[in-house]
Sequence to fold (121 residues):
Amino acid sequence: MPYGNRWRLNRRIFHQAFHQASTPAYHAVQLRSAHKMPFVLLQDSGNYPNHFQMFTLTFMLFIIYDCEAKAKDDHIAHAITRYGELIVDGFAPAAMMLMETFPFLVKLPSWFPGATFKRAS
Fold:
C-alpha cells in the first residue's frame, strides 16, 4: 500500500487498537484463556499442539473480531488456521525461489496444469 491518506487512516485504526495504553483491555481475555488451558491439557494431554493453537486463536479472535472460539471444532478457528497455513506455504522458500528464478511463471493462471506452486503462493 503506497503512503497516502488511506495508509494514514489504516495506521490510525491499527494504532487505536494496539497501542500500549489499550493492551490492558485484552488482559481479561488472555487470563480467561490461560485459566482454561490447564483443564483442557489435563483432559486431553496428547493433543497439546492443538490446545496451544486454540489458546492463541481464542485470543486473536477476540482482539480482531470480538468473538471467541467456543470449541476445537469451531468453523471460524478452522478457517483462520487454514488461511495461516496458506500464507506460510505461499512464503515458503521453494515457491518464492521458483517465482523469482522464472518471473514469467507469475503470469500463468492458477488452473494451468503443473501450476501447483501458484496455488500454494
